[in-house]
Write a structure and sequence with these properties.
The protein is α/β, with parallel strands linked by helices. Helices cover 49% and strands 13% of the residues. Helix 9 crosses helix 10. The protein starts with a helix and ends with a helix.
Length: 288
C-alpha cells in the first residue's frame, strides 16, 4: 500500500465516503503497520462501509465473515466435505485401485478465514459484528490475527502468502477482551454532524436541493439526540429518506411530508409512538 495519507483521503472521496482525519489516520496506520482495525460504533454509522471502500481503493476482493451467536471455528475457518469424502469411500470400495487421501486439500471446504489466508494476493477480510460471538471464538481469532496462520491437523500449519487487510466491527453488544483490542488499532465512529451528513447526502443524492438537504439532516439529528429511541436512524436511512423526498418531488419540508414518510427513519413501533407523543412532526420542525 503505497498511498500517502492525503492520497488515501482522495481515494475515499472518490468512493463517496466522507470522513475526517480522526477516521482516516487509524485506517492509514492499520494499512501501513499491517495490523487489524477494530471499528466500534452504533449500527449504521459506516463501519462496514470502510471495508467495502478499502476493497475498491486497493482494487481487491472483499471476503466477509458475518458473525452470529454460536459461530464456531468450523464455520469460520474450514470444514471437510464429508459428502464428497463419503462418495469417494463408496467408490473406492467398488474400485480399490487408485486410492486417494480423503483428507487432502481437494476435500477441504474453505470458510472466510482460511480463504483469506490462502489467497495469493492481498485481500480485505471483514469480520463483521464480532461482538455477537462468544469469548471462546474471540480467543480462537488471536492466533489468526497475530500470526496470520492456521493449523489444520491433517495438513499442518498454513501461513498467509499475503497478509490480508483485516477489519473487525462491533456494535457494542458485549465488551471485547483486552487480548483482541491489544492486537488491533482501535477506531470509534459516531454519527456524523449535520454538516458532515449534509455533505454525504449531496454526494449520494445530488438531485435533492440544498435547502431541503439541510432541513432533512437537521430533522435526523433531532431524532438521534432529542428522543431516547430504541433504534436511531442510520446514515443509510437518512439516504433512503432523501431518495424518498426526491421521488415525491418535494421542494421543502412540511409537517405533512414528515408524518407521511417517518417510517423510513423509525423502524420500531415504540419509537414511532414516542415520536408522536413528543409532538411529532410539528415539535420536530419547531425545534430545528
Amino acid at each position: 500500500m503505497d498511498f500517502t495519507l492525503k492520497e488515501l483521503e482522495e481515494k475515499f472521496k472518490e468512493e463517496n465516503y466522507i470522513c475526517d482525519r480522526d477516521i482516516l489516520v487509524p485506517v492509514y496506520l492499520s494499512l501501513k503497520l499491517k495490523k487489524p482495525l477494530l471499528i466500534t460504533g452504533a449500527p449504521g454509522v459506516g463501519k462496514t462501509e470502510i471495508a467495502k471502500v478499502l476493497s475498491k481503493v486497493l482494487n481487491t476482493e472483499l471476503i466477509r465473515l458475518q458473525c452470529y451467536e454460536g459461530l464456531d471455528e468450523n464455520k469460520a475457518l474450514y470444514e471437510w466435505n464429508y459428502q464428497k469424502q463419503l462418495l469417494h469411500i463408496q467408490s473406492h470400495r467398488c474400485h480399490p485401485e487408485g486410492e486417494e487421501d480423503i483428507f487432502s486439500r481437494e476435500y477441504l471446504l474453505e470458510r472466510p478465514l482460511l480463504k483469506a489466508i490462502l489467497k495469493p494476493h492481498k485481500v480485505v477480510l471483514l469480520i463483521d459484528e464480532i461482538d455477537k460471538t462468544d469469548a471462546e471464538f474471540e480467543a480462537f481469532l488471536f492466533e489468526v490475527l497475530s500470526d496470520f496462520q492456521v493449523s489444520v491437523p491433517e495438513l499442518g500449519t498454513i501461513k498467509a502468502k499475503e497478509i490480508p487487510v483485516v477489519i473487525l466491527t462491533s456494535n457494542g453488544e458485549r465488551d471485547l477482551s483486552d487480548g483482541l483490542k491489544r492486537r488491533c488499532i482501535f477506531l470509534h465512529i459516531d454519527f456524523p454532524s449535520p454538516e458532515k451528513e449534509a455533505e454525504i447526502v449531496k454526494r449520494k443524492v445530488p438531485g435533492l436541493g440544498s435547502e431541503l438537504t439541510w432541513q432533512l439532516v437537521k430533522n435526523v439529528a433531532y431524532l438521534r439526540t432529542e428522543l431516547a429511541l430504541k433504534k436511531k436512524p442510520s446514515i443509510s436511512e437518512t439516504l433512503d429518506w432523501a431518495e424518498a423526498l426526491l421521488t415525491l418531488n418535494a421542494e421543502r419540508m412540511t409537517e405533512h411530508l414528515v408524518e407521511e414518510t417517518i417510517n423510513l427513519l423509525l423502524k420500531d413501533k415504540e419509537d414511532i409512538d414516542m415520536f408522536r407523543e413528543r409532538g411529532g412532526a410539528r415539535e420536530m420542525m419547531r425545534k430545528v
